[in-house]
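name: query_chain
kind: protein
chains: 1
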Amino acid sequence: MAKQLLGKEVNEALVANLLARTTALREKGIAPTLGIIRVGARPDDLSYEKGAIKKGETVGVDVKVFELAEDASREDVLAVIDQVNADNTVHGVLMFQPFPAHLRPYQREICNRLDPRKDMDCLTDLSSAGVYQGRDDLGYAPCTPSACMEILDYYGIDCKGKNAVVIGRSLVVGKPAAMMLIGKNATVTVCHTKTVDTAAICREADIIISAAGVLGSLTKDYVRPGQIVVDVSMNWNPEKITSKGKGGMSGDAVYEEVEPIVEAITPVPGGVGSVTTSVLIGHVVEAAERTLA
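structure:
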């Protein structure tokens, strides 16, 4: 039976650390504050927003929500970004994506309008450059791959000299996760939809981070004993819905196949996703601390 790499345990450690830091900030008259910019009311955005507000309340971080209508114009969104950029009481900003279809042609302009010092989830080009250059002074890394690294660190998984495979090459998870693993001195291979025989490549890995976003794509054919599997994806799985209509989420891994083989694995739910909000709030606290420098 594999060891479960539980987000709950990681969160407990992060929350204790954040509470101490927010207390110190408030004693100095600084109330760390997250600004959330949301266009429309997508259910997944609302769910994440609710989690961020709750986590903020737990550790002493205030949250201000800037809500725009679904049909908000480019000019409307840019005006709100300018507002939060100029507001010294807002230390960090989360801006939900994807934008509604009519705003997507302006996505790069909109994202880069945000002050990189307040960019908590790596939306700006400068923040991305910081990830690839290993410079945290240029911005903050995306929250999801950062959560993966927090889990590896908490459970004492040393990446140095290990072979790591990242499945997925998105700008928000796959590519930054690869850069972060390189920063931990792992040797990294990135697999994607055009990779030939991903299963064979994965079997040679010591660490697998699966961010394909495809339900059941990581099967027993991809793994061997002794591996660490970090399952990033949250996929809708109708077979997991309970009689009360709850549940329904699974990762990329066919858990019942993979778990008996590998050394350790993150469950879905209860793994990476549960740590992501703590990382977000941690970025806000760090941004507030930087105002003291």
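note: Residues 7-27 form the longest helix (21 residues).
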